[in-house]
Amino acid sequence: AGEPERAALLPVDVHVVGYSELCCSMLESFQIPYYTRRPDVGGLPWTRGLGSAQGEYIYVPASCLEEAMELLNAPVESGEEEYEEELQ
Question: Residue 53's pLDDT is what?
């Protein structure tokens, strides 16, 4: 609604190389705003959507925390059945 809101730390394991980019991409595709914080970058503690490194933390608005967690914890469907049906 355009009002300032408290940021909430998204509890994901962003120490896995490439995982934070995947999380940020999913948040973007579902239009959930986010910010990242990289303690290893001196002078620039807050970035938005920049490439990540180990030790990056992802924050979302507190009102979006539950939705973001559900999105990132949703079971993955393989789609193999659909692919096999298309081949036949």
Answer: 44
What is the separation, in whole angstroms, between the first and last Cα of the chain? 49
Residue 83's pLDDT is: 58
- The neighbour count for residue 9, using CB atoms within 10 Å, is 12
Contact 21, 52 (CB under 8 A): yes
Q: Report pLDDT for 61.
A: 93
d(Cα 10, Cα 57) in Å, to the nearest integer? 8
| Residue 20 CB burial class (10 angstroms; 0-12, 13-18, ≥19) | buried
Across-strand partners of 36?
47, 58
CB 54 within 8 A of CB 41: no
Mean pLDDT of 29-33: 93
| The token pair that represents 12 in the structure block | 């994901």
| SS3 state at 24 | helix
